[in-house]
Amino acid sequence: MSMATIHISATEAARDFAGLLARVRAGAEVVIEDGPLTVAVLHTPAPPRRSIEECIALLPEDSPATIDEDFARDVEEAVAAHREPLNPPAWD
Fold first, then answer.
1. How far is CA 33 from CA 3, 40, 78, in A?
2. Among 2, 8, 36, 80, which is least packed, fewest CB within 10 Å?
């Protein structure tokens, strides 16, 4: 869930940086500007991604998944078939 983008001057940002961080933690994006120039953009980091090894390790022992010599090709084909950007709806 993302809040609106907040535009703030560098001077205002310096006055209450802790407050800005609280708003970022709550989901806001903060654009810090010096006159007409954007000097920084604060937002939460992207979540960490799992490696394929970590994903395989999460499979239950009785999983029917098969990792064979064609697995890499199958994954590449699946990724290539879904190159559209992921733009999930914003839920309020």
1. 19, 7, 41
2. 36
Helix/strand/coil for 78 = helix
Residues belonging to the chain: 92
**Torsion sign over Cα 61, 64, 67, 73:** negative
CA distance 2 to 25: 10
Residue 3 is which amino acid?
Answer: M
Arithmetic mean of pLDDT, 82-87: 76
Is the pLDDT at 34 greater than 60? The verdict is yes
- Kindly write down the DSSP assignment for every residue of 20-73, as one continuous string: HHHHHHTT-EEEEEETTEEEEEE-PPPPPPPPHHHHHHHS-TT------TTHHH
